[in-house]
Amino acid sequence: MKNICVVGVGYVGLVTGACFADLGNKVLCLDTNKEKVDALRKGLLPIFEPGLEELVVRNHQASRLIFTTDYGEAIGQADVIFIAVGTPCGQEGEADLQHVEAAAVGIARSMAKSVVVVNKSTVPIGSGDFVANVIRKNLTRDLGFAVVSNPEFLREGSAVYDFMSPDRVVLGATDRVAAETVAELYSPLKCPVLITDLRTAEMIKYASNAFLATRISFINEISRICERLGADVKQVALGMGYDRRIGHAFLEAGVGWGGSCFPKDVKALEHMAAMNGCHPQLLRAVMEINKAQRRHLVQKVREALGTLQEKKIGVLGLSFKPNTDDMRDAPSIEVVHLMQHEGAVIKAFDPVAQSVADRHLTGVEYGKSPYEVARGADALVVLTEWNEFKQLDMGRIKSMMRRPVVVDGRNIYEPAVMQQQGFDYLSMGR
Length: 430
Ligand code: UDX
Prior knowledge:
Elements: E1 3-7, H1 11-22, E2 26-30, H2 34-41, H3 52-61, E3 65-68, H4 71-76, E4 80-83, H5 98-110, E5 115-119, H6 127-138, E6 145-149, H7 159-164, E7 169-173, H8 176-186, E8 193-196, H9 198-229, H10 233-241, H11 262-275, H12 281-305, E9 312-316, H13 331-341, E10 345-349, H14 354-357, E11 365-366, H15 370-374, E12 379-382, H16 394-400, E13 405-408, H17 415-420, E14 424-427
Parallel strand pairs: 1-2, 1-4, 2-3, 4-5, 5-6, 7-8, 9-10, 9-12, 10-11, 12-13, 13-14
Antiparallel strand pairs: 6-7
Bound molecules: uridine-5'-diphosphate-xylopyranose (UDX).
């Protein structure tokens, strides 16, 4: 059992804090946002994440998970301090480090003993050294500390599972003992632990996300070629995936990638490369293909209806992927804007993201079910592959629509079945 402090109770911080508490540690979660901390003390979570609420409430009740706004209380007892604050995208695509810097200053000023400071936020290569310098400059006493980089690989919607069953833990440090102290925290999870230097650990995170985004842009490009040549991209991906060198994951063609990580990290890596004299052609193409994929879907709707002017479009799914209410860089934002720009009237349904979506969208009406959205629609557009859209009563849907057009941005329906049911069905790469 260790005393842990997690600075920043955003997505990563809250999952990290709750999971380490569940593994038997005493965890103090620190955030400067008092409202958020008060809500968490009452068991009210700022995000929707399967399994997290139960974990937070249970560990909070067992006094293993404590929420505070007080740096002194949080840092004083801690052996290991995780920095898990946001690193938003700056104007040029660079990661903005102001919250990381503020956390490092707060830690330095409240340290009462030697600590290991672990960076979990996705930070530009070299930020480990930056955090060490900020702490060194702001220390009020002569205390020892070491900085470790420990990138997170959590997926939204399965973050608790991903934390508890990781494929690997990556630790970067100059101080081997500090890295081993952090490795010890993960030892109950029985997974491979790679200990390397700080910059390499930081790069592993960017390279992993950029590679996954590249796979998706690759299959999306293949899907466009499939459309022209009469092949089925789903079968192509299946056939490719059986090759163990390739694998099945992250080969689903669709309306493209979004979320809080891929767009920000691919852009930041491209920016770092360009600023350091590299010419990141592939990363640029990966982002360009992703943008084009959103426009391509709108083009399909336009072609099916002739024009979007005054057409009623039902949208199924708004979050950037299923099992989350996260709307950050969700393809739906751009797709809805593009369709509205051409004069379409949008009615949308999402099982959990509607209230969050409303902050990103204007002029959208919301339905209480997919059927309500289908009523009177000229076309139904699927943007998120929520399970509950997969088994709809399609006969009922068709009878409610003004025109039986379905544009499936996530390939969740079978073309032959949809055509048999009388739909004008368009999907991605099939
Ligand atoms: C991702 C990484 O997976 C995770 O390791 C990292 O820590 C944070 O970023 P997340 O953003 O939660 O996680 O979503 P993920 O499940 O990876 O999906 C990202 C995007 O890619 C989504 O928009 C999803 O719809 C899209 N996607 C994914 C595809 O379009 N096709 C696929 O085959 C897989």
